[in-house]
């Protein structure tokens, strides 16, 4: 009964946002991606669940973004003009080419059903990308980065709780079998959590590039160690390696190289400490 109430509340809230505040759906998607645990919030939807795939807040929010853009496509001339421009963009053409290659692989696929399923999944992801591009403008283009960055920071208290107490709020029966504690907070797996944190750090750097207020930049720099602490608690070597690669690339693109080198040094020190504590 509670799950049905949560489902109804979710759909009602998203419906209001589709009509009244479609832009709010975009940062909400960043938070929804972080809430993989939301797949346990909803009831079994039977055939509908087989069509939609795993029922989660991410899936509902993605569909809501597509619907919000689709509605505005009918009623706003500016949105239709923007759609034509997006389809001329090289990035859009490359994505369409990638999806077309996936569809052509049906010819030699060993599992045609799975190939069709994955191709449809790519089309949905492309529709989400297209919808976000239609809803955003020059003044709101950083909303997705704000959503991911804030969602990553919001997980810090839960990560610290799991790291200190040793209690995992989800998937503990599987993850606590490992020799070392690796926090996963609201994610099904610590490695997925680590990848999301790397996205949060990348979002932090992007926001710094487009921020000219020195005080705000200092706040962003102060947030980086909070994200790094979470990354270390995941115990994900792949995540830390990915972060190292991101930071090396940041040296070439961000103007403040001294700060990046300092943060890179802190990351290297943290990785060294992690290897000493958990050599296995």
TrEMBL record:
Keywords: Membrane, Transmembrane, Transmembrane helix. InterPro entries: WaaL-like. The chain crosses the membrane at residues 55-75, 87-108, 120-136, 148-172, 192-210, 222-254, 260-277. PANTHER family: LIPOPOLYSACCHARIDE BIOSYNTHESIS PROTEIN PA4999-RELATED (PTHR37422:SF13), TEICHURONIC ACID BIOSYNTHESIS PROTEIN TUAE (PTHR37422). This is Polymerase.
